[in-house]
Write a structure and sequence with these properties.
Chains A, B: One of its GO terms (molecular function) is hydrolase activity, acting on carbon-nitrogen (but not peptide) bonds, in linear amidines. The structure is a homodimer of 461-residue chains. Helices cover 33% and strands 23% of the residues of chain A. Chain A has 461 residues and is an alpha/beta fold. The longest helix of chain A is centred in the last third of the chain and has 21 residues.
Chain lengths: 461, 461
């Protein structure tokens, strides 16, 4: 047995704890949920139920309410004894010292930003579970071998600045800093990410880089956002990877003309062409067992009696395998120009007057290839889940691939990473009615705690 | 011969003029075009050519630039000796006294507002031709039998406040004042028409009513906005009526869900359903020889990775006969709910994964039945065109029905009305590149002048 550390305020070292002692380490469910709902006062969204907490969230990245949640995060983690740093992307790292403080921390992380009509759990739960982990360690006087930390990543959603996981992407060296800084908000389209970081006081001085902020590992608790755990009656998903996805912007150009004086054959109707493309992308996705979705569509000039000459829309293509996404993309690139030109692809033109050609341009804004998480982190999560769930652990757990992207995708490029999923009601997410049971939130947070502790004791350096 | 009027500054009465003298009354083409381009400094739009005047217009109703154009209109017509009144809809009436001033004026009128990406001629030419008419009367010392006037109607385009001809509609008693005052702008959707009238100082005190501002007749010069005159090599269109149209708002409700975790069959994708409806409306229009157009589409929440749960779009349906518009509307009302519910109408679902149902609601915002103009005004225009065009007059003129709505639609409900069309390049309108030859503008203005003078001498009261 090693002596108690002289420098650390927490003196019971993890190496001293046996399995039974570790098993008894529990998160405080009430406190976890109280904290979570407390921070949901900043950016409260649409009400869907009667209970006080039955509202969604509207906390777009770098908005005023995001600033308030961030300020709370910084104050809370500092009060818990963490050292807090903010990098050039506004990522906030809170580190609790361990025995060997010259080594990088093991992180728990997620994000506090939400969709425009998001819920209270997506991202938020993961950050709160990280804070709860620190609280449990503190109140049990536990000194970890290495430092442990909690990270709040900026603009994970990609909802306000249209690139998901943009700031973990910069940290990983996968997205250039300038590209992320220059991202312009979707609505109303005036501010850039750098401007907003600076405006809310979170343009930090630390380089946004895995070399400036080292990570020994990254564990992320997240709600599944899909229906699989609930349908299978499981409590914990051990996430072994993330499916591939690409984001495109499609711009269709026709000609502004009068709706009352321009006969159908003399039109170059960019919206009619875009409608056909959206329908076609749905058919392509169906044929390839992939997903294709349009979440943003803007048109110009936007007048009832003008045929729109300019339509832009987003296209989000996903599939488990990179090859599938590539195949759908290739068909989009091949077929959209034909649709614009007026070819009768899959009978889209049947029964409609042929008209003048439009043109189309397609840009790829974002690419996240299929991700595989790290075997030792997956193992840590599997064992932690069994520790938390007890004898039934095996039957209440399942391995799964994430449909959504997460900051863990980018951390996995630079350090061992894996994720923990918990079920959410009807798989609903990116919706105000997103809901997770308190019990499940607590199970997830406890698995996170034990995953980090297990990794802390297993790690080599 | 009657004595010169003692009270009028213009002493040569029209009754004294014979055909030959009338024939020699010409508009000043240079002055007309100079004035027109002068006022296009307010709201100058997109440049499309090198010449100074080769830009479009962006002068939305009741915008700051519309106020500047209005101020110019008021000052100019007052300086020409007109009495100017402004009604509660911001319609501006400028009246030049005649011999019998206890009787209503014969008006020339159109509008100074434009589309978001409009041209320099649509509406603007008609107002300027009215002012040029006053100038020609003044400089030739002509006293008309009855007063003549020029009217600038508010928000004819319906582009900013989504109801076309809204203010002539109130004047005619066809649209309730409150409905027009409460119209909310399309973008960004904050201000109402009443607020904007008041803000720019054009919420007049005169009742917006055909009973408060009497009209003996309304003549409107306008560009055709379609290709028929140009294709037929005609100089003047004698407009005998206007086709029917209706404006609808279609709202599709689905469910916000995550694009990465929601499989295709678990979606209620409001944009996919809306795309099918837009395609279907194009097919319905084709089948009925009608027009169907969507110029506005808004969706919520508007995030790349959220399947939109809420889409609203405009639908503009037109046809020469009321019955045709009614038939298309009936099919829209019958078919859109089926498309929303997931029925495979005309193979729209072929090759796509069936998904959860959406719902749809359709509201009719505006209805303009087919209009027939007044025989004696049509006659006045026909004769005026022959007077202006000379021996070739008959072969350079054709009767036609307007595809676009105009304030003359509403004036025709309360006073004898007709319109004069001139050709525009390639029939292009609601487009910055809208263009009319100076020569054609002058011909149109001259036909307007002579139509008004002819009517002035023909009228009974
Ligand atoms: N967790 C989550 O919804 N992330 C957004 C990134 C994505 O689009 O998958
Ligand atoms: N002239 C014109 O473009 N008016 C707008 C009304 C319509 O939509 O037809």
């Amino acid at each position: 047995k090693r002596p108690f550390s002289q420098t650390s305020p927490w003196r019971l070292q993890t190496k001293e704890l046996d399995e039974d002692a570790l098993k008894s380490l529990k998160v405080n469910k009430k406190r976890l949920m109280k904290d979570l709902h407390h921070t949901c006062q900043w950016g409260t969204g649409k009400r869907w139920g009667k209970a006080e907490t039955e509202t969604g969230m509207t906390r777009l990245a770098l908005s005023d309410s995001d600033k308030q949640a961030r300020d709370w995060f910084v104050k809370t983690t500092e009060d818990l004894g963490c050292k807090v740093t903010v990098d050039e992307m506004g990522n906030i790292f809170a580190v609790r010292p361990g025995l060997k403080n010259d080594k990088p921390a093991t992180f728990a992380g997620s994000h506090l930003d939400t969709q425009p009509t998001g819920g209270r759990y997506d991202g938020i739960l993961g950050v709160h579970a990280g804070i709860e982990m620190i609280k449990v360690l503190n109140e049990n006087w536990i000194e970890t071998e290495y430092p442990v930390g909690v990270v709040n990543w900026t603009n994970e959603e990609g909802a306000r600045f249209p690139m998901s996981m943009s700031s973990s992407g910069v940290w990983a060296g996968s997205i250039p800093l300038a590209a992320a800084h220059n991202l312009r908000e979707v609505h109303p389209g005036t501010a850039t990410m750098a401007e907003e970081l600076s405006r809310i006081g979170y343009l930090g001085s630390v380089a946004a880089s895995h070399e400036a902020t080292l990570m020994a590992a990254h564990f992320e608790l997240h709600i599944e956002q899909g229906p699989l755990l609930e349908m299978a009656n499981k409590k914990v998903g051990v996430v072994i990877g993330v499916q591939a996805y690409k984001w495109l912007t499609v711009n269709v150009k026709g000609r502004d003309t009068h709706t009352g004086t321009t006969d159908l054959k003399s039109r170059a109707d960019a919206l009619l062409a875009a409608s056909k493309m959206i329908l076609h992308s749905h058919r392509l996705a169906t044929a390839h067992n992939a997903l294709a979705s349009t979440g943003i569509l803007n048109l110009k000039p936007g007048s009832t009696n003008t045929v729109p000459g300019d339509v832009s829309f987003s296209l989000d293509i996903r599939a488990p395998a990179d090859e599938t996404v590539a195949s759908v993309l290739a068909l989009v690139q091949q077929d959209f120009p034909k649709i614009a030109a007026g070819e009768n692809l899959s009978g889209l033109n049947d029964g409609g007057t042929p008209s003048l050609p439009c043109t189309v341009s397609i840009t790829e804004d974002f690419d996240s290839p299929a991700t595989t998480f790290h075997a030792s982190c997956i193992d840590a999560v599997t064992r932690a889940a069994q520790r938390v769930l007890g004898p039934d652990g095996k039957s209440l757990t399942m391995e799964m691939t994430s449909g959504a992207g997460h900051d863990s995708v980018y951390t996995s490029k630079r350090c061992p990473t894996s994720m923990i999923f918990i079920p959410c009601r009807e798989g609903m997410s990116h919706n105000p009615e997103e809901f997770c049971k308190e019990e499940d939130c607590a199970i997830g947070a406890e698995v996170l705690l034990h995953s980090v502790l297990r990794f802390d004791r297993m790690r080599e350096v």
